[in-house]
Amino acid sequence: MKRIICLVIAFCICFAANTQNDTIVLPKPKTIIGIASFYSSNLDGTKTSTGEIYRNSKMTAASNQFNLNTWVKVTNLRNNKVIKVRINDRMHIKMEHKGRVVDLSRTAAKELGFIGRGLTRVKVEELLNAHND
Predict the structure, then answer these.
(1) Count of CB atoms within 10 A of residue 125's CB?
(2) Of 24-33, 41-50, 114-123, which gets the smallest average pLDDT?
(3) C-alpha distances in angstroms, 5 versus 1, 9, 13, 15, 106?
(4) Does 61 reside within a domain?
């Protein structure tokens, strides 16, 4: 009987010690630096990888580095302008080989201020909670 009581007490002490030191580990968002481009205007109305229809006017993007339907924050490293877009498409593999990390809708590219340049260096950060980040 004493042995059982000692085991129960030891278990309770170990359990209490483990629960006091438990920490919540949040996933670290993915961040990528590379080149951004934007969709050709003639692609408006075509189907994306998610099955939805691409619209130049929406804040969306293509990327092979992030899961579909992931929200990302894109920072133009030339002028520090920042936008949020949803990944709803994949890029052609040739673009990835050229160092492209994201292909933005025309509206998103205008907001980042690089329509005239065609390409710009960006930082793309995964948003774990798109409404609060």
Answers:
(1) 20
(2) 24-33
(3) 6, 6, 12, 15, 71
(4) yes
For residues 121 and 6, what is the distance between their CA atoms, to the nearest angstrom? 64
Q: Which domain holds residue 43?
A: 31-126
* β pairing state of 82-89 and 71-76: antiparallel
DSSP string, 25-82: -PPPPPEEEEEEEE--GGGTT-B-TTSSBP-TTSSEEE-SSS-TT-EEEEEETTT--E
Number of domains in the chain: 1
Torsion angle of C-alpha atoms 108, 110, 116, 121, degrees rounded to 10: -50
Q: Could you tell me the two tokens for 38?
A: 């934007």
Where is pLDDT greater, at 46 or 21? Answer: 46
Whether 120 contacts 34, CB under 8 Å: no
